């Protein structure tokens, strides 16, 4: 093949390769932009909550507990049980603080100057609830009751909608608390107008009941 033809073929190949590389770069860029946008928490929109402020005709009852390795149900008398409306704002909080761990897997190294008091096992789940309660505009739409010694709880006059049930439990089984557990028990529900839900299981999902 003459040298001129060889050079022409090489130029065509390089040209086609350049087009292919450019198209791949353009198709990859929007994906990265989209991922960055989805990582941002949604803005609090009070309009999503208006239907949850009024009194309703529905009731619900259940039991909140954590599952011990021995199979025992760990309950706490007086444990607060929160009924949280599901909106884009609260769903983001739930997915990043309750469904997954609310503590960072990487601890920040400390020095003598930056040393802080050691974190207790209660800090992690408590901080998850504190993050939600920090939004004061959400307060009128949250409902809270307390569990009895067996972990049972009740809500009445609830409007229809979708909710998270979340309870922070810090308790042990037996007089010496040989099986002390601390964590968040939770459940997602959908409530129809006038519906009565009973025997709800609010737990940490280690039992396979979620």
Structural description of this entry:
This protein has helices at residues 3-38, 88-97, 123-133; strands at 58-64, 66-67, 73-74, 80-85, 143-146, 152-158, 161-171, 181-191, 196-202. It is α+β, with helices and mostly antiparallel strands and 210 residues long. It has 2 domains: 1-37; 46-103 and 120-202, Immunoglobulin-like, CATH 2.60.40.1120. The strands form 3 sheets. The protein has a 4-stranded antiparallel beta sheet, covered by helices on one side. The termini are far apart.
In short:
With 210 residues, the chain is an alpha+beta fold. It has helices at 3-38, 88-97, 123-133; strands spanning 58-64, 66-67, 73-74, 80-85, 143-146, 152-158, 161-171, 181-191, 196-202. It has a four-stranded antiparallel beta sheet with strand order 5-4-7-8, with helices on one face. Strands 6-1-9 form a three-stranded mixed beta sheet, with no helix packed on it. The protein has a two-stranded antiparallel ribbon with strand order 2-3.
Q: Which terms summarize this structure?
A:
210 residues, Immunoglobulin-like, 2 domains, four-stranded antiparallel β-sheet, three-stranded mixed β-sheet, 27% helix, 27% strand
Give the helices and strands, then pairings.
Layout: H1 3-38, E1 58-64, E2 66-67, E3 73-74, E4 80-85, H2 88-97, H3 123-133, E5 143-146, E6 152-158, E7 161-171, E8 181-191, E9 196-202
Parallel strand pairs: 1-9
Antiparallel strand pairs: 1-6, 2-3, 4-5, 4-7, 7-8
């Amino acid at each position: 093949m003459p040298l001129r033809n060889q050079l022409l073929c090489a130029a065509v190949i390089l040209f086609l390769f350049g087009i292919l590389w450019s198209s791949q770069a353009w198709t990859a860029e929007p994906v990265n932009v989209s991922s960055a946008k989805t990582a941002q928490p949604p803005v609090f929109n009070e309009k999503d909550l208006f239907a949850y402020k009024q009194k309703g005709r529905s009731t619900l009852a259940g039991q909140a507990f954590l599952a011990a390795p021995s199979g025992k149900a760990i309950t706490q008398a007086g444990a607060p049980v929160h009924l949280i409306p599901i909106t884009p704002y609260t769903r983001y909080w739930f997915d990043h603080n309750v469904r997954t761990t609310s503590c960072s897997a990487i601890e920040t190294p400390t020095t003598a100057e930056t040393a802080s008091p050691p974190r207790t096992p209660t800090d992690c789940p408590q901080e998850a609830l504190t993050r939600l309660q920090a939004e004061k505009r959400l307060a009128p739409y949250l409902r809270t009751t307390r569990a009895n010694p067996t972990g049972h709880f009740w809500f009445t006059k609830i409007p229809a909608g979708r909710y998270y049930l979340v309870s922070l439990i810090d308790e042990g089984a037996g007089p010496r608390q040989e099986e002390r557990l601390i964590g968040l028990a939770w459940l997602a529900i959908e409530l129809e107008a006038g519906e009565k839900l009973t025997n709800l299981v609010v737990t940490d999902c280690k039992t396979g009941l979620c």
